[in-house]
């Protein structure tokens, strides 16, 4: 009986040890494999597009081609302490061109169809944009430099002067440049898809929304030749029209940097199969460092250099039809910036409306499940 008991214990110990040795051998083999578990950084990058597939259908293709029509608009409103207020805006710019996309990233080039004549001097105007959208994070980079094709949309001289004869008059004395970026985090990224609305790289299957949190940096410069405006006003309205304006206090140039933290909300409404309507709004508290420069008149620098907080905003709208192979739609993006001080204030907004039609191709291979998953 004792011999049987000893034999049973020995067999139990052997049964326990052999699987452990086999597991050790198996683990050592896995350690030597090329498909060993990815690093934490790679896991983090891979998790950028983890979604709930009952709400979001992932992209099934690697590449896309798209034809897009882009209509851009911008407006500047400047106001001085003396009551001079002027609103300047160019005509809407209409551009058409092809785009090529790989997963998250789009590249493209558009041509201004209103200025196809190469002899026309339009070299001072520049416009570049680059966007990356994942389920968790979005990044927008932009650079805009205006030309000299502004028109006076409204003008007030603060002394009951009738300025209607100058409405829509060309004004070549304004140049501006803005360069910056916005980064934002999408909290409900597993069920809400920004790419479904604005880069067509996923398809929203059920309605969902999400809070947004963002950070932005912008550097803007605005230069206006007040002498040209004064000459126009005095020529059209008479020399006495500018009597109530202190010309020595007019800014020649304003440069400011804008650092902002934003919060907002976005919602995707799936109102029919393959159809999506999207809207988002973010408001930003912006800290601005500004310097005003006048080329002809000396002034106290303290009056024009200051720190200030203001409200900025970004709004987006989208309408998309997407059956994963073909897609079409329209989107609008509007940026608004403001700076207010007793001596001087400026508000500017720029935005674009995109109308597009595209095709996805080269279907992705299904991912094989790794041994560590």
Care to describe what's here?
It is built from five helices and 18 strands. The model is unreliable at 15-33, 118-122 and 293-306 (pLDDT under 50). It has helices at residues 2-32, 40-46, 194-198, 226-237, 301-304, and strands at residues 56-57, 61-80, 85-90, 93-102, 105-108, 111-112, 126-133, 137-145, 150-156, 170-171, 174-186, 203-204, 208-224, 253-272, 275-293, 305-322, 326-340, 344-363. It has a 16-stranded antiparallel sheet that branches. It is α+β, with helices and mostly antiparallel strands. It is 16% helix and 52% strand. 27% of the residues are buried. It is elongated, with a radius of gyration of 30 Å. Strand 7 and strand 8 form a beta hairpin.
How much β-strand is present in the residues? over 45%
Question: First CA to last CA: what distance?
Answer: 48 Å
Structural class based on helices, strands and sheet pairing: alpha+beta
Q: How many strands?
A: 18
Q: For the CA atoms, what is the radius of gyration?
A: 30 Å
| Oligomeric state of shown chains | single chain
Q: Helical element count?
A: 5
Shape: elongated
Give the SSE string.
HHEEEEEEEEEEEHEEHEEHEEE
> Helicity range of the residues?
10-25%
Look at the structure and give the mean pLDDT. 78
Low-confidence stretches: 15-33, 118-122, 293-306
């Amino acid at each position: 009986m004792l011999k049987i008991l000893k034999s049973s214990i020995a067999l139990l110990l052997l049964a326990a040890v052999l699987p452990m040795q086999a597991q050790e051998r198996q683990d050592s083999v896995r350690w030597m494999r090329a498909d060993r578990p990815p690093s934490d950084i790679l896991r983090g990058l891979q998790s950028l597009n983890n979604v709930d597939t009952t709400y979001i259908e992932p992209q099934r293709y690697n590449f896309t081609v798209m034809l897009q029509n882009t209509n851009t608009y911008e407006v500047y409103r400047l106001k001085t302490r003396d009551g001079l207020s002027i609103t300047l805006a160019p005509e809407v710019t209409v551009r058409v061109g092809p785009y090529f996309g790989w997963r998250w990233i789009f590249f493209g080039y558009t041509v201004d169809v209103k200025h196809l004549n190469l002899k026309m001097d339009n070299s001072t105007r520049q416009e570049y944009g680059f966007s990356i959208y994942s389920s968790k994070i979005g990044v927008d980079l932009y650079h805009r430099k205006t030309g000299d094709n502004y028109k006076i949309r409204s003008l007030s001289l603060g002394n009951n002067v009738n300025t209607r004869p100058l409405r829509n008059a060309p004004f070549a004395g304004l140049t501006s440049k803005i360069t910056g970026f916005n980064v934002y985090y999408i909290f409900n990224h597993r069920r809400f898809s920004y790419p479904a609305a604005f880069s067509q790289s996923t398809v929203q299957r059920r309605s969902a929304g999400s809070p947004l949190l963002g950070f932005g940096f912008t550097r803007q410069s605005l230069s206006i030749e007040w002498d040209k405006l004064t000459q126009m006003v005095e020529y059209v309205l008479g020399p006495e029209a500018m009597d109530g304006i202190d010309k020595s206090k007019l800014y020649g140039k304003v440069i400011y940097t804008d650092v902002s933290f934003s919060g907002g909300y976005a919602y995707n409404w799936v109102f029919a199969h393959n159809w999506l309507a999207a809207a988002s709004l973010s408001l930003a508290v912006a800290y601005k460092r500004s310097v005003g420069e006048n080329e002809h008149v000396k002034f106290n620098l303290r009056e024009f250099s200051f720190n200030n907080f203001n409200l900025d905003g970004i709004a987006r709208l989208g309408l998309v039809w997407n059956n994963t192979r073909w897609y079409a739609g329209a989107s609008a993006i509007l940026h608004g910036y403001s700076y207010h001080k007793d001596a001087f204030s400026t508000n500017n907004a720029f935005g674009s409306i995109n109308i597009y039609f595209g095709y996805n191709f080269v279907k992705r291979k299904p991912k094989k499940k790794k041994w560590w998953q």
